[in-house]
User: Fold this.
Amino acid sequence: MTMADISDRTCDILIVGSGIGGLTATIAARLAGLRPMLVEKLPVIGGSSAMSGGVLWLPNNALMQREGVPDSREDALTYLANFVPEGDPGSTPERREAFVDAVAPLVSLYESQGLPLLRCEGYSDYYDTLPGGNARGRSLETKVYDANRLGAWKARFKPQNMPIPARASEAAKLMQMGITWAGRRKAAEVALRGVRGTLTGKAIYSSGAALQGRLLEIALKLGCDIHTDAALVSLDQEGGRVTGAQVRFGANNEGRVERVKAGRGVLISAGGFARNAAMRHQYQQEPTNDQWTHANIGDTGEAINAMAEAGAALGYMDESWWVMGFLNDLPGGNQIVPELSKPHIMLVGADGKRFVNEAASYMEVGRATYERNKVTKAIPAWAILDSRHRKRFVFGFAMPGMTPKGWIEKGYMKKDATIEGLARQCGIDAAGLETTVTRWNAMARMGVDEDFAKGRSAYNRYYGDPTQTPNPCMGGIEKGPFYAAPLVPGDVGTCGGAVTDENGQVKRVDGTRIEGLYASGNCTSPIAGPHYIGAGHSIGCSAAFGMLAVKHAGG
Assistant:
């Protein structure tokens, strides 16, 4: 590439990536009177945020205050402090305080632009029993959205990937459709919502697609400069300060490289490296596989590498937002989360022994799987369930009582009349599994998991079976036929990247700031260490630090 191949564009702040951090920052910059430019390397806007549940973990938020739900700044900071190793440079007290204090202006920004927010009652913090935890939940979401409101931009927006137009907070009730009238009513309500949308010509998007669609509409109304098919090539520096970047404008990475001069700096909010096999093998635990991820296809790590080349310190590159995955004909398989909180199911390694509270935070289950795999083969781990689980609950995309024949025929799921026979099919130690099942059944009758405390916390019970007593998360594995599903530690993105400060400024290894360089989201080192602490924790942080970065860059 020669200098003749590069032309110039200018803006006040260049924002790389169109997830929630990028769109929020773009809106905040425009409202502050700045000229932002947002570039997205894919042909569609939305990032991994559009594929998510669209929930924002925002402690002590205004909706909680309006509805009389107890919370405080002190409780939020106490809760965050539970998860941070001493001296973690990516989660200083100042950075945690900045996040908590950003919640009020962030909610105000959204509501001032007409973004409707709803509180997710009962969607508990994932560690609600720890100091500062909140059992009623600190998470917010938005209403479903008619994507036709985007006009021509609808074709440049990431399409809805949810099979039904349901908000994330409705999932727990939907998962009860086979066991409670409340679940059946919620299923009927969501189905009617979809029918009405079809009859009225609306394109009903929900969850993350609804949230991102609304933010894109706001940004467009404000006249923001937004580009798709625009990939970051490298960062430009002068005297140790980032002054802009070189961006390739054009589809399929075949366009012209242009230098974008950014007077106030560059904000990277471009996700992680879940789809980059080489980076996964370089930084993460083995076994790892980029085919196990559910992250955005653009999650390929170039932005993290660009920040590292500019001198950024990196943290938690060995971690992802782990979600156990059931591999089948679907790319990446099915994410398995609520299924593990139900009765009549447990998770074991090849020795037939349990190793984790199945109803814990999905990231906790993934991390425990890797730890167990160091002792005995636990990748894949095996979800062991009896016929009542398959009769009463959803598993993957299989409705209650409707296990696809192909799963059994192709070996995705094993089925047998006895626990011993099931163990032989899976290569599990039969005696070990029989012993574990016997102990599990005895504990289930008491309703107390003496080994891993399944069902003790509000978050455990959130996805449990309210008709199951005395513990909504425990039920015997006694009624054949029995089933086993191999689960791998998949993810919804990596969670490591550049170390940043309370303003979103990127830091060097020596702790100094790289002037003019900011970052938010999955390309940064997280504020709660290797833990996912509440529904929407990652995108809540991304949005907050995107806004804070713009505030600092704008002076």
Summary: The first helix runs from residue 20 to 31. The first strand starts at residue 7 and ends at 16. The chain has three domains: 1-160+203-319+495-555, 165-200, 322-491.
